[in-house]
Design brief:
224 residues, alpha+beta, outer membrane lipoprotein receptor (LolB), chain A, twelve-stranded mixed β-sheet, 4 helices, globular
C-alpha cells in the first residue's frame, strides 16, 4: 500500500515539473496550459483513496502537499499512519514515523521507472506518454496520460482541472487497483519556507542511506 503513496507523490511531481516541457512544445489542453502558466509553487490538502480491482476500498489517507518549482516537494500523510516524503531536488527522504525509519535516496535514481523519471531530465513528455483531452465532466476538465512503455507499473493517469486549479488525479495500475486523489483548499504560488524541503532524521531512528557514493566516497552504512 505504501508503494501507492510513493507513486502518487511521483505523479504530482511529474505534473508540476515535467509537463511544463509538454506545455511549451506540444500545446496541450487549455486547462493544463492555464494551470502551468506562471506556476512557481502549489499547496493543498488532499484525500486519497485506494481501491482494488473489484472496486473495494483498501485504504483511505489524508494529508497535505507542498510543491516548489523546480524539483522540491513535501508530501505528508497524517492518516491512517504518519509518513513524510520530502525532496530538495537532489535528495529524497521517506520518513515512516510509526516505523521509526527514514530511507534516503538520490532523486534521480529513486524516481526511475515512475512518471517522475522526467522530473530532472526535461524530456519530451510526448515521447513517453500518449496525452488525450477527455473534455469536461461535472465541471472538471480531464486529461489522460498513457505510458508508451509497456513495462510501466501503471496503465493510465487522469488529471482533473477546475478553474486553473488541479482538482484531482486518478491512477490506474497494472494490478487493477485505482488510486484516487482529491485536492482541497489549493493555493497557487504560496510563500513556502525553505525548511519544508529539507529533513534531519530524529535521534534514535533507523537511517537507511541508499544514495550513490560520490567519487572517492565509501558507501554509507545504515545507522542505528
Amino acid at each position: 500500500m505504501r508503494l501507492a503513496l510513493f507513486i502518487a507523490v511521483s505523479l504530482l511531481a511529474m505534473i508540476c515539473f515535467s509537463l511544463s516541457v509538454f506545455a511549451q512544445e506540444q500545446a496541450p489542453a487549455t486547462a493544463l496550459d492555464e494551470f502551468l502558466e506562471g506556476l512557481d509553487g502549489f499547496s493543498s490538502a488532499f484525500e486519497q483513496t485506494l481501491t482494488n480491482e473489484r472496486g473495494e476500498q483498501i485504504e483511505k489517507s489524508v494529508g497535505v502537499v507542498y510543491i516548489h518549482r523546480p524539483g522540491k516537494f513535501h508530501w505528508a500523510y497524517w492518516e491512517p499512519y504518519s509518513q513524510y516524503i520530502i525532496s530538495n531536488g537532489v535528495t529524497l527522504w521517506i520518513y515512516d514515523e510509526d516505523l521509526e525509519q527514514v530511507t534516503i535516496k538520490d532523486v534521480a535514481q529513486s524516481l526511475d521507472d515512475t512518471p517522475a523519471e522526467v522530473l530532472g531530465g526535461y524530456v519530451d513528455v510526448n515521447t513517453h506518454y500518449v496525452v488525450i483531452d477527455l473534455g469536461e465532466a461535472g465541471g472538471v476538465d480531464w486529461l489522460e496520460l498513457t505510458p508508451r512503455n509497456i513495462d510501466s507499473q501503471y496503465k493510465a493517469v487522469l488529471l482533473g482541472f477546475r478553474d486553473r486549479d488541479l482538482g484531482g488525479m486518478i491512477l490506474h495500475d497494472n494490478l487493477g487497483q485505482k488510486t484516487d486523489i482529491v485536492f482541497k483548499d489549493t493555493k497557487r504560488n504560496p510563500v513556502l519556507k525553505p525548511e519544508l524541503f529539507e529533513f534531519t532524521p530524529p535521534e534514535g531512528i533507523d537511517v537507511i542511506d541508499n544514495r550513490e557514493p560520490g567519487p572517492g566516497d565509501a558507501p554509507a552504512p545504515a545507522q542505528p
